[in-house]
Amino acid sequence: TTVQDAGRTGYAAKGYRVCGAADSYAYRLGNMLIGNAPGAAVLECTLRGAALQFETDTVFALTGAVSPAALDGVPMPYYAPLFAKAGSTLQMGMASTGLRSYLAVGGGIATLPVLGSRASLVTSLVLLVVAIVLELAVLSVIRARTRAKTSGDAA
Predict the structure, then answer these.
(1) Per-residue model confidence as pLDDT tens digits over 9-52
(2) Residue 59 in contact with residue 83, Cβ under 8 Å?
């Protein structure tokens, strides 16, 4: 599950992808159903939905790939404005049709924007983790060679 919005534009020349919701129709419809601004951030769930607890009374909508969804154990429909009381728990299951489900909440998902967008780019995070792992592996090899050389010099 990632945070997505309409994406960031104007940065391709600097190497940044647009990102944003994969299913722009479902994304826009979710925001429209609950009266959000057109660019409000939502949660985009790939295959498996989210499980979360609402901290405040919240209007929300589910769109996109249909999966079983229940609020405090009560089944919830897709493509309708819905209401959750503070403390309510929403549980979404595996998508039965499609790939990505969207959860739009009143006011949008409030994360810090980066280059004018709240959209997450998972591949960037994966590449960062891979780079860190490779750097650690190189450092480990360098340390091992240094220890071997130091041990050889001492003998």
Answers:
(1) 887 787 777 788 889 999 999 999 999 999 999 999 998 989 99
(2) yes
In whole angstroms, what is the distance from residue 62 CA to residue 68 CA? 11
- Of the candidates 21, 16, 48, 17, the one whose C-alpha atom is nearest the C-alpha of residue 109 is 21
What span, in angstroms and rounded, lies between the C-alpha atoms of 117 and 74? 34
Q: H or E segment at 89?
A: strand 89-92
Q: What is the rounded CA–CA span in Å between residue 20 and residue 11?
A: 13
Measure the CA–CA gap between 134 and 110, rounded to whole angstroms.
33
* Secondary structure of residue 92 in the 3-state scheme: strand
- Spatial separation of the C-alpha atoms in residues 120 and 107, rounded to whole Å: 18
Q: What string of DSSP letters covers 99-129? A: SEEEEEETT------BTTB----HHHHHHHH
Q: Which residues, other chains included, contact 142 with Cβ-Cβ below 8 Å and sequence gap of 6+? A: none
CA–CA gap between residue 10 and residue 82 (Å, rounded): 35
Residue with tokens 């091992």: 144
Task: Convert the pLDDT of each residue in 48-101 to its tens digit.
Answer: 989 999 999 999 999 999 999 999 999 999 999 999 999 999 999 999 889 999
